[in-house]
Amino acid sequence: PCQNGATCLSRTDHYICECAPGWNGTNCEIKINECESNPCQNRGRCIDLVNGFICIC
């Protein structure tokens, strides 16, 4: 059930996904958007990367 390169840890009555960098959610199905908080200043354009971002000025 774990997605996007996550590690599945089996427990007695459930499982846990350890998400790869840049992913979140119960099954690691949600891509983290580092640009969501508008980190670039002076109208720079944000490019979302895996586990980071860059600003284009």
Automatic annotation (TrEMBL):
Species for this entry: Branchiostoma floridae (Florida lancelet)
Superkingdom per UniProt: Eukaryota
GO molecular function: calcium ion binding
Repeat among keywords: yes
EGF-like domain ranges (all copies): 1-29, 31-57
PANTHER family from the UniProt entry: CYTOCHROME C OXIDASE POLYPEPTIDE VIC-2, UNINFLATABLE, ISOFORM C
UniProt keyword terms in alphabetical order: Disulfide bond, EGF-like domain, Glycoprotein, Repeat, Signal
PROSITE patterns documented for this protein: ASX_HYDROXYL (PS00010), EGF_1 (PS00022), EGF_2 (PS01186), EGF_3 (PS50026)
Disulfide-bonded cysteines: 19-28
Protein name: EGF-like domain-containing protein
